[in-house]
Design goal:
Oligomer: single chain
Strand content: 25-35%
Number of strands: 26
CATH architecture of the largest domain: 3-Layer(aba) Sandwich
CATH class of the largest domain: Alpha Beta
Strand order of the largest sheet: 10-9-11-12-13-14-15
Helix content: 25-40%
Distance between the termini: 35 Å
CATH topology of the largest domain: Rossmann fold
Number of domains: 2
């Protein structure tokens, strides 16, 4: 049995005095990190947090974020990372739904969030004061691999977010899959540039701790800052979503740094254009590009495509690679029967990395956890060599800049506007974000002219900015529908995706 304390204990055993994190001018050894995690647990217990208590964190990447991510579960509690891009109503919902009574945050003004929890711990000052006044607790006592380690909130098809329940077993399995699949060793110097609340941002964190490797958190993404840190700290591995790769490649072409140390550049979370891969390879000529595929529900790693720099003109470039060691992928019909190679069906994932379920949502859990696997909602096929190719999404989901946007969530908001009769939301190709949220709206016959700018502003009041449509088309004729009355979004999407090389990835 292994829990989140095991990577921490191994690092303490093999490299206690090695630098675990460089956060600005601050360096923290693995021995210090272990002690600070124990102090955090003691401080939270002093505030009334018992075993199983949910503790939320709303903050940018930092060394303290690492402590919360690892220390809270290692102390028998549940960490609840909150999306910093969510609107206030979404954050309030996540806190209320999870039952979190403690919030750790670097936000100067948390607004109504303070009314939802009993304690707000401000980073860095209040946090550091709490840790200074306590003795470290013993980590891992009474913690089982089946215990809940984290609640990770993702967008919901019903308009409300779903709390993905990941156990210690899930996160440990993902770390082991990562160690078995990504080239790395204890001498790695990793830059954590994707936000840690995101599955992609936290993907390799436990693996790096397990082998005693250095990690450098980037608080807020800035392409110039990324390149400066790579040059300064001789970073050799990092991970980001495609929009980040596009931005750092452009910055490197415009203002070159010494990036010769960078050996591995990993991307995932949303579709990537072949041109972005080409520009990244040109900007980082000594670097191996790796694409990863997964979902929050899979902890998240599922499949991996390595050596993209050699595959750009190969048909395999359109694939997501092969399933990682420890994880299996199959293509199935809705009845659970497996389809032959080359036939399109729903992508189903099996392994110890599969979530326990959705918090307080048994019906939605049952919809995706069935027939012994997790039904991803992605439609695709496997070739004869086991490479996974995605062709569509059955869940009507948009992946923009690494964030999942469920179309119905945005449609629900549009329908609240008094001038809207019909609304359809879908993804369109975007050079920067992979996909951009787009809407087609049919106004009520009795209404005046509908202003797309007004509708966009209306959406921004209710949902996070990344979910708000980047463009809205107004049409007077009804939306196309199937016989049963379902809106035919494929027809609406088709003109936007004509001629693109990677519609889904």
């Amino acid at each position: 049995m292994q829990t989140l304390v095991d990577p921490l204990k191994r690092a303490l055993q093999i490299r206690p005095n090695a630098i675990a994190f460089i956060d600005g001018e601050r360096e923290i050894t693995f021995a210090e990190f272990h002690q600070r995690c124990g102090k955090l647990v003691s401080a939270l217990r002093a505030l009334g947090a018992e075993s199983g208590a949910r503790v939320a964190i709303l903050a940018n990447n930092s060394s303290q974020y690492f402590e919360a991510y690892v220390g809270i579960p290692a102390g028998g509690m549940v960490v609840v990372p909150l999306n910093t891009r969510h609107a206030m109503p979404e954050l309030v919902y996540a806190l209320q739904d999870s039952g979190a009574n403690i919030l750790i945050t670097d936000r100067a003004d948390v607004g109504e969030l303070a009314d939802v929890v009993e304690h707000v711990i401000m980073l860095p000052d209040a946090y550091e004061t709490l840790l200074a006044d306590v003795e470290p607790a013993e980590l891992g006592e009474g913690v089982a691999e089946t215990d809940l380690a984290g609640l990770f909130y993702t967008g919901g098809t019903t308009g409300a977010s779903k709390g993905v329940m990941l156990t210690h077993r899930n996160l440990i399995a993902n770390a082991q899959h990562w160690l078995a699949s990504v080239p790395q060793n204890e001498h790695d110097r990793s830059l954590v540039m994707a936000p840690m609340f995101h599955a992609a941002g936290s993907n390799g964190i436990l693996a790096a701790i397990w082998q005693g490797a250095l990690q450098v958190p980037l608080g807020t993404f800035d392409p110039a800052a990324v390149l400066d840190l790579i040059e300064k700290h001789r970073i050799n591995i990092t991970l980001g979503v495609p929009s980040m790769l596009a931005a750092i490649a452009e910055e490197q072409h415009a203002n070159p740094r010494d990036v010769s140390s960078l050996e591995v550049l990993i991307h995932g979370g949303s579709p990537i254009a072949t041109e972005v891969v080409r520009r990244s390879c040109s900007a980082f000529p000594t670097t191996q590009l790796i694409e990863v595929y997964g979902a929050t529900e899979t902890s998240p790693l599922v499949a991996l495509l390595g050596n993209e720099e050699t595959l750009m003109d190969d048909p395999l470039a359109r694939s997501c690679g092969r399933a990682v060691v420890g994880c299996s992928v199959s293509i199935k019909n809705a009845d659970g029967s497996e389809l032959p190679r080359g036939e399109v069906g729903e992508v189903v994932v099996c392994g110890t990395n599969i979530m326990k379920g959705y918090w307080n949502k048994p019906e939605q859990t049952a919809e995706v956890l069935k027939h012994g696997g997790y039904y991803t909602g992605d439609m695709g096929y496997l070739d004869e060599d086991g490479y996974l190719f995605l062709v569509d999404r059955s869940k009507d989901m948009i992946v923009s800049g690494g964030e999942n946007v469920y179309s119905t969530e945005v449609e629900d908001v549009l329908y609240r506007h008094p001038a809207v009769l019909e609304a359809a939301v879908f993804g369109v190709p975007d050079d920067k974000w992979g996909e951009a949220v787009h809407a087609i709206v049919v106004p009520r016959p009795e209404g005046a002219q509908v202003d797309p700018t007004e509708l966009i502003a209306f959406c921004r009041e209710h949902i996070g900015g990344y979910k708000v449509p980047k463009g809205i088309d107004i049409q007077r004729e009804p939306l196309p529908k199937s016989g049963p009355g379902k809106v035919l979004k494929r027809e609406l999407r088709a003109p936007f995706w004509a001629g693109t090389d990677r519609a889904v990835n």
